[in-house]
Amino acid sequence: MVVERSTFQPRYESADVIEYAGRHVPAPVRQFIDPALGRLAVPRFGTAEYFAPLVAALRAQPPSIVLAHNAPQLPWLLRNTPHRVVLYAHNELLRTYSRPEATRALRPADGIVCVSRDLAERTRAAVGTENEAKVHVVGNGVDTARFTPRMEGPRGGPMRVMFVGRVVPEKGVDTLLRSAAGFARSELEIVVVGSAGFDSAAPLTDYETGLRALAARSNARVEFRSFVDRTELPELLRSADVLCVPSRWPEPSGLTLGEGLASGVPVVASRVGGIPEAAGPASLLVTPDDPAELAATFRRLLEHPERRREIGWAGRRWAEAHDWSWAWGRLREVLDAAVPGFHAGSPD
């Protein structure tokens, strides 16, 4: 795995890591100048400068299939190397690209992998006719060995609804807090795990401050926990009675959804983007930005604990059928088809 040196590395403890130092590119170049150049059919020089150390590091490696994670520029930048490049899209990556630029940038790509059908549809619309057939869907898997259900029976106390993720407006935590208005403190507890970024010591943003003011007026118990390391997530999720994913933006997928399902926790999530695909048939879907519908769903789960347990175990079974071995099998099929004769081996 080749990663930029500032990348959060503990999540990669199972991989052999080659680090590179990405060159600094001023924000105005990334945000304004490069996109403007792209629209004029001129290569994005800031992007090329940033990735130059990565390209140099890969030139020293034997020929391989390069999975370019969220980096639509790499197929073009690696076009004169012995590597075969497959773009791995976890997000909508081409919003600043004109259709001609996207066509040119991805022409050298051997494949384009998207983590949901929803993202694949949006990607096909952006990559140009000659690249449409390269787009494939490989959903995220889940670590069902690390994320496991609570086995000691009902927890007792108020129903604990947990949010895990970045605490930014797009994630809809304010909708979650507003949904608690009709609950007593003895009925509902909300735990918000995460920060605006990946630094637990960072100052609160205006949005985070506003959430705390909203929580202070809530009838339910509300607890905020700053960003935590992924190693703490399995135990946290096992302590929840419900996982809520109240996103208001068309999130392409979401690892937290699968981790909640694997933990045997009922998942309540927004019906938007690729979330319904990742949440599976055992999850409960609600309209984004609708605290009343969210509250009604929580009320049903609160009043029917046996049904809550049934939903949780159904989610666990879904996760077991969609673990990382399933995802790797699907990805290997795509790579073998995209790069014939260059067979992908085992991730181990």
TrEMBL record:
Pfam families cross-referenced by the UniProt entry: Glyco_transf_4, Glycos_transf_1
UniProtKB keywords: Glycosyltransferase, Transferase
SUPFAM superfamilies in UniProt: UDP-Glycosyltransferase/glycogen phosphorylase
Domain Glycosyltransferase subfamily 4-like N-terminal per the UniProt entry, residue ranges: 48-146
A GO molecular-function descriptor: glycosyltransferase activity
Top-rank lineage group of the source organism: Bacteria
Domain Glycosyl transferase family: 154-318
Entries under PANTHER family matching the protein: D-INOSITOL 3-PHOSPHATE GLYCOSYLTRANSFERASE, GLYCOSYLTRANSFERASE
Protein name: Glycosyltransferase involved in cell wall bisynthesis
Organism per entry: Agromyces flavus
